[in-house]
Amino acid sequence: MPQMRTILELQDTDAIATLCHARKEPVFITKDGESDLVIMSVETYDTMFREAEIDRDIAEAEAEYQRDGVLLDAREALIGLRGKYFG
Question: What is the DSSP string of the chain?
Fold first, then answer.
């Protein structure tokens, strides 16, 4: 369940930081009873950012397949990548 805190609770920055690191998820900040901000630890942000990049890459690959209908052989692709980057 998402953690929600009021904007007044931001005054205790140490407690909010501890909460963000302990929960490893975004903390929602409300102002006048409405959602206003979302804060999180750098580790959580990095994880979410990496996952979003992977999701974007998968969506791009699926769109490319829908457009071109071409699949690559995994073994050949890995051999090509090894040659290009380790070769």
Answer: --EEEEGGGGG-HHHHHHHHHHHTS-EEEEETTEEEEEE--HHHHHHHHHHHHHHHHHHHHHHHHHHH-----HHHHHHHHHHHHH-
